[in-house]
Amino acid sequence: MKNTSLVLIVVLFVAVAGLYILHFIGNKSNGSGIDGSNDGGASSELKIAYIKVDSLVVNYDFAQEMHDGFTKQQEAFTKEYSEKRSRFESQAAAFQEKVQRGGFLSQERAMQERDRLVGEEQQIGKLDQELSTKLAQMQADNNKQLLDSVMNYLKLYNKDKKYSYILNAAEVLIGDESSNITKEVLTGLNARYAKTKLK
Question: Rounded to two decimals, what is the model's pTM?
Fold first, then answer.
């Protein structure tokens, strides 16, 4: 479920950002975002391609490596939190048992122990918040790196191809499969990533 959630978040983030950037690239290219076919004969052919972003993200080696790193960090944080929570619960149960059988020498000593446990529980709650914040930041950083990687590659890719628009297939209701450049872009992204890993 967490894997599905991460993939969905990444896909949505890339899709929205891609559409946003493509919108402004389109507006810049002809000043109005309208096909330049009404400019007195200087018309240009509209070339459109699309990418299945969800498929791209799932099969992009860089995205998988980031996801694996995120999952390992999440597991480490969960283990750290669980160990501290379990230790606290054992101490709280031991305290309760000791109170019930009258094991404290004085009421003051029992209150000191109770206050210590309350403080420890607050620290565990604070740790939970800190770890959740770190994971959220890590996920946001990963999404940004992934988006930057894909968009930088698409800019280079499109210098030769000269597409007017490269769309997210999730927004395309009907499309010619010959306009689907997902496989080609994925191959290029993975080849570029493999080269960076060799350095």
Answer: 0.67
